[in-house]
Amino acid sequence: MAEKAKAKAKTGSRSKTGGQPEYVQLLTPEGDRVEHPEYSVSFTDDELRSLYRDLVTVRRLDAEATALQRQGELGLWAGLLGQEAAQVGAGRALRPQDMAFPTYREHGVLYTRGIDPIMPFGLFRGVDQGAWDPNEFKFNMYTIVIGAQTLHAAGYAMGIQNDGAVGDDNGEAVIAFFGDGASSQGDVNESMVFAAAYNSPIVFFCQNNQYAISEPVARQTRVPLYQRAQGFGFPGIRVDGNDVLAVYAVTKAAMDNARRGNGPTMIEAYTYRMAPHTTSDDPTRYRQSAEVEEWKAKDPIARLGAYLNNQGLADETFLADVEKQAGVEAVSLRERVLSLPNPAPESMFDHVYAGGSHHLDAQRAEFVAYEATFEGGAH
Amino acid sequence: MAAETLTLAKALNNGLRKAMEDDPKVVLMGEDIGKLGGVFRITDGLQKDFGENRVIDTPLAESGIVGTAIGLAIRGYRPVVEIQFDGFVYPAYDQIVSQLAKMHYRSRGKLKLPVVIRIPFGGGIGAVEHHSESPEAYFAHTAGLKVVSCSNPADAYWMIQEAIASDDPIVFMEPKRRYYEKASVDLSVKPGSLFTSAVLREGSDATIVAYGPMVKVALESAAAAEEDGRSIEVIDMRSLSPVDYAPIFASVRKTGRLVVVHEASKNLGIGAEVSARVTEECFYSLEAPVQRVTGYDIPYPASRVEEEFLPDLDRVLDAVDKSFGW
Q1: Is residue B226 located within the same domain as residue B263?
Q2: Spans of chain B, pLDDT less than 50
Q3: Domain containing B28: what range?
């Protein structure tokens, strides 16, 4: 499943459609480093290699998840293929004290936070609905209602301000993830109004992957999405979402700006959803393979691979080791997903209320008694 | 502290103040709640005393208010949200029903959402459209939310404090037509349990169950019925989800007759659930079908006809007669 990235990078020429968007880029699709007047990165060789390792691993785990769904082991999977650089770049730019509010696709961000990648699989397997403590991981539970989490992020950022935990280099900041489709949601727009009104320490990170299931981004907006920020009164910036170096640089600058007390930024990471929206989707019904091929040539992993290769930072041994370790993680993930226990049926009554409910206690007792009538039977 | 004579509005104001004094994590949020003190003045003077970080004037966006309250709760705060009028809560419906109500469950108990949503509700004030609605059943139908309503100043004072102290999200329905009615409030009283119904008047011939603004109507009806020689028991539900049924069942087993009163429409209203539960649990005690006196199944009408829409003493007594005539 894991494709050889290098082969792609050699594909020198590709057709350019008109109106190539303006964005911050530090690494071209061919793997050439380019400078930007405002944004730069200064990674050590080891750091560059670990970025590459994250990208490959995240893609490999995603592929494993898709396979698990196809084999009936997950109810659904929302893949991130093609968006690895946007997620790894953003995730690696966060500091431990920062709080992330994901959609349901930020498996790459989750991974870079050092969180066990199995964490969201309970949700997709159907054994729970998240079941983690957002504060323990500084990573909110996945939110499925489109855009709803951006308001939670804005509120959390208000809390940071109330706590006085903003205003210097060690301040806290929030990153709210959403997509191009969500940009039409009232909640996303309201979250920007709130963040602007209170000048809160928050970064709105929009992965524009060009599609909201089947609807192209043109159905959501007439202007480039990052330009919406101007109307709310804070900076918006577009970054090449398939360039992990640029995403890192832009996100880090925005987060640091926020933690110092300088308010919100919106980042539009211009990328492409190579996979279906979810495993239930069929993108052949609404997009051309030529378009997909064009984006393949901009692959986020291939370009970093090419750069490492050009710089003599990655030899065959390293590349093989990255593949091997990613495979080991994927196999471990698979085994652990398969052994996730089904919840006890009566546990569905748990945790509806923190303070409990006599009414529910009675209903649970009824349920348990009813279930008991089947014991030893075929139920 | 001795008892004071307070309006329901002032009792809520005192309760909010006490909650803010007791816990620095309590923050108030809403439209016009700062300098103005809210359109009903429930938060009057609180911003002056607690500052703009704890009494937060928000942008005019209800989903935004509730959504950011959730974020503040994740951060460890105890937000108390004011929705300006009942009919303006609907833009926040998704955040209340899909997020606030479900996040504790979603997290398997790892995340608590101690958010209170205060909603001035009900009619009878001659208002324009969207200012007189009774949306409580929408929220009572949603697992994960608790829904309560105060009917008098004394309860308002401690119930708002208990709601804020609760680790569950609470929709707190305030009877706006009773805001400026006065009663004696003992500010030193130990709060009761938020999720209990209360027998406000004992009787032996029939039971009237009501909540919020209709409790007063129920009590007046009982007093009038007494002149006809009927002894009516009146129960204030106070909590609409969960409902404390024990006193209701006990009363119906005693009286054999039940009338449920609310302003909200009859179809699938709180009265429908009470009627069903009483029928299930007290079937052999009932001398007549449970009677419901409610708003009609129409949009809240123009204010010049709202007196005909709203349950009043005559309609309640009519229902009592109907029960006895069965």
Answers
A1: yes
A2: none
A3: 3-186
For helices B214-227 and B313-324, give the axis angle rounded to 10 degrees.
Answer: 60
Determine whether A277 is an active site residue.
yes
Chain centroid offset of residue B80 CA: 15
3-class state of residue B37 by DSSP: coil
A140 CB neighbours in chain B (<8 A) are 74
Give the pTM: 0.95
- Whether residue B93 contacts residue B138, with contact meaning beta carbons closer than 8 Å, is answered with yes
Reduce the DSSP state of residue B203 to 3 states and report it: coil
Residues 6+ apart with CB under 8 A from A84: A55, A58, A59, A62, A108, A244, A300, A301
Cross-chain residue pair A154–B68, CB shorter than 8 Å: yes
CA distance A372 to B17: 50
Maximum pairwise Cα distance, chain B: 59
ipTM exceeds 0.90:
yes
**How many other C-beta atoms are found inside a 10 Å radius of the C-beta of residue B20?**
21
Within-domain flag for B69: yes
Please identify, among B164, B186, B208, the residue that sits at the C-terminal boundary of a domain. Answer: B186
- CATH at B259: 3.40.50.920
d(CA B232, CA B258): 10
Report chain A's C-alpha Rg in angstroms: 22
Check residue A18 and report its DSSP letter. Answer: S
Place of tokens 């964005």: A23
Residue type, A132: W
Average pLDDT value for residue range A174-201: 98
> A194 and B63: CB-CB below 8 Å?
no
Are A152 and B99 within 8 A, CB to CB? yes
